[in-house]
Design brief:
- By secondary structure, this protein is of the alpha+beta class.
- It has two domains: 47-184, Rossmann fold, CATH 3.40.50; 191-274, Beta Barrel (Lipocalin).
- Helix content is 24%, strand content 34%.
- The chain has five helices and 15 strands.
- It has helices at residues 9-29, 47-56, 74-81, 95-108, 138-149, and strands spanning 64-68, 87-92, 114-118, 131-134, 156-160, 171-175, 178-184, 191-197, 200-209, 212-218, 225-232, 235-240, 247-254, 257-262, 270-274.
- The strands form two sheets. An eight-stranded antiparallel β-barrel has the order 8-9-10-11-12-13-14-15. The chain has a seven-stranded mixed β-sheet with strand order 3-2-1-4-5-7-6, covered by helices on one side.
- It starts with 8 loop residues before the first helix and ends with a strand.
- The chain binds S-adenosylmethionine.
- InterPro entries: FAM173A/B (IPR026170), Methyltransf_25 (IPR041698), SAM-dependent_MTases_sf (IPR029063).
């Protein structure tokens, strides 16, 4: 029998058991407390807005749509049922919402293509999304922004209501008095590049602020021509120089290389490589 200082086993044991029963009753009388804290309450997106979100993102059969904070599942379900996405995933921390969303997917006949996962969106790897949808809050959008910017270039991100601060949306629409915003994740081009074409070689020093590009170009003839430009996913536009002598190049970035052509030319005959 264990000896505990100041503890008379026979009398104190009975007291302990009674106290145990009393506190068990007290615990059971309390409403069940959630073992998680939601970052955003459940407020469903109206169906007209769901439609515009998916239409603006041009969701189609090549897409895997991930809805962060999926609520009753309406966005993920519509992505597959109405827009023909190949698959969709909804992530929600509230098990009641997940159960409801699964039941809704079942009734809609799409449970083979739509998964609902009970998980914290901040601990979810959503890098497989080709389209990411969100109806969250401004600070949650901002907390996700760096991770979103690391997604594959060209990934479309659609938010109901809230922006991402100085990362300006590529598309902004009002739908029934609500805002719908869409961004296309830009390729990452910041740094030094060599661009070689039929009539010369340039060294580009590029800075990038989200989808906007600035910088300088050095050629055999000039040392610091101004460069401006923009990105739409992997599609790049660069303007080298100013005024009448400015040259515009358009093309695509793929990792550490780019293929561009002077405006008006069909040949992407300028090859860029990161230095
Ligand atoms: C405003 S509702 C949006 C529901 C749905 N996406 C829609 O637009 O109809 C936000 C959802 O996020 C969920 N949520 C809140 N914090 C979360 C977190 N940290 N991880 C996953 N889901 C979360 C809530 O349970 C809620 O269902």
């Amino acid at each position: 029998m264990p000896i505990v200082r100041g503890f008379s086993f026979l009398t104190d044991y009975r007291k302990l058991v009674l106290a145990g029963i009393a506190s068990l009753g007290f615990i059971m009388a309390q409403p069940a407390r959630a073992a998680y804290t939601l970052d955003v309450p459940f407020v469903p997106t109206p169906y007209e807005v769901v439609d515009r979100m998916l239409a603006i993102a041009q969701v189609g059969p090549d897409d895997h749509v991930i809805d962060l904070g999926s609520g009753d599942g309406r966005i993920a379900i519509a992505a597959v049922r109405k827009y023909g996405a190949r698959s969709a995933l909804g992530v929600d921390l509230n098990p009641e919402r997940v159960a409801e969303a699964r039941a809704n997917a079942e009734s809609a006949g799409v449970s083979d293509k739509v998964e609902f996962r009970e998980a914290d969106l901040f601990e979810t790897d959503f890098s497989s999304a080709t389209v990411l949808t969100m109806y969250l809050l401004p600070d949650v959008n901002l907390a996700l922004r760096d991770t979103i910017l690391k997604l594959a270039p060209g990934t479309r991100v659609v938010s109901h209501a809230f922006d991402m601060d100085e990362w300006e949306a590529d598309v902004y629409e009002r739908v029934d008095g609500r805002s719908v915003l869409m961004w296309v994740v830009p390729a990452r081009v910041e740094g030094r590049w060599k661009l070689e074409g039929p009539d010369g070689v340039m060294q580009l020093d590029l800075q990038q602020q989200f989808q906007q590009i600035s910088g300088t170009a050095g050629t055999a003839q000039a040392t610091a021509l101004p460069v401006s430009g923009s990105l739409n996913g992997a599609a790049i536009t660069l303007v080298v120089g100013e005024g009448d002598s400015a040259r515009t190049f358009t093309g695509n970035v793929q990792g550490d290389s780019m293929l561009v052509a002077p405006a008006g030319s069909m040949d992407t005959n300028w090859k860029g490589s990161r230095l």
